[in-house]
């Protein structure tokens, strides 16, 4: 029985570096891709120029305390504010697409770790998320918006940072070498 267990574990050890990243990308696509894209779309202004002109709601989502401090007079916001909002919006569009395609996967996943960290801090300090929505680890509840859900997101991204896009990715196609099957 122990020998059978060891053989099975050995097989899984061989398969995991190739299969786990693909599984992480599939789960990301199924669970979070449209969450991030949907959020990004709410930040875009109308039409094609909206890619460079964020909506008023974008400023409220990304810089809530700043918008509040100017009395919701968006004309008082400067170029820096616009660039911050645009960078976040484009990150929400581009980084998830790169992850799903498996292109620059490690870099995209690292970018998503940074994005989700900033998103979480904005939710906590900018929007005042607290209590049950913030959550607490090692309690019986597993559905808190920040500490519980986003911990799983971060784990997913860490798998991709450490293992890359897996065997079915554009990263592998672009970096393929005869003797290298580790990607």
Automatic annotation (TrEMBL):
Q: Which GO terms describe its cellular component?
A: plasma membrane
Name the residues that span the membrane.
20-38, 79-101, 108-130, 150-170
Cellular localisation: Cell membrane
Q: What is the first-listed, main subcellular location in coarse terms?
A: membrane
Q: Which UniProt keywords apply?
A: Cell membrane, Membrane, Transmembrane, Transmembrane helix
Q: How does it sit in the membrane?
A: Multi-pass membrane protein
Q: Tell me which family the UniProt entry assigns to this protein.
A: Belongs to the DoxX family.
What PANTHER family does the entry give? INNER MEMBRANE PROTEIN YPHA-RELATED, OXIDOREDUCTASE CATD-RELATED
**Protein name as annotated:** Putative oxidoreductase
Q: Which organism is it from?
A: Albidovulum inexpectatum
């Amino acid at each position: 029985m122990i020998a059978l267990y060891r053989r099975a574990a050995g097989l899984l050890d061989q398969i995991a570096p190739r299969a786990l990243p693909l599984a992480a990308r599939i789960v990301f696509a199924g669970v979070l891709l449209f969450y991030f894209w949907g959020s990004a779309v709410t930040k875009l202004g109308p039409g094609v120029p909206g890619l460079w002109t964020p909506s008023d709601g974008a400023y409220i989502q990304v810089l809530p305390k700043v918008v509040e401090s100017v009395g919701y007079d968006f004309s008082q916001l400067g170029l820096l504010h616009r660039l911050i909002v645009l960078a976040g919006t484009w990150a929400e569009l581009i980084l998830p697409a790169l992850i799903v395609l498996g292109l620059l996967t490690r870099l995209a996943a690292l970018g998503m770790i940074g994005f989700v960290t900033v998103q979480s801090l904005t939710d906590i300090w900018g929007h005042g998320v607290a209590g049950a929505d913030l959550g607490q680890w090692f309690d019986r509840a597993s559905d808190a918006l920040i500490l519980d859900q986003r911990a799983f997101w971060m784990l997913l991204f860490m798998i991709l940072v450490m293992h890359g896009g897996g065997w079915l990715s554009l990263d592998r196609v672009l970096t393929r070498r005869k003797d290298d099957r580790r990607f």
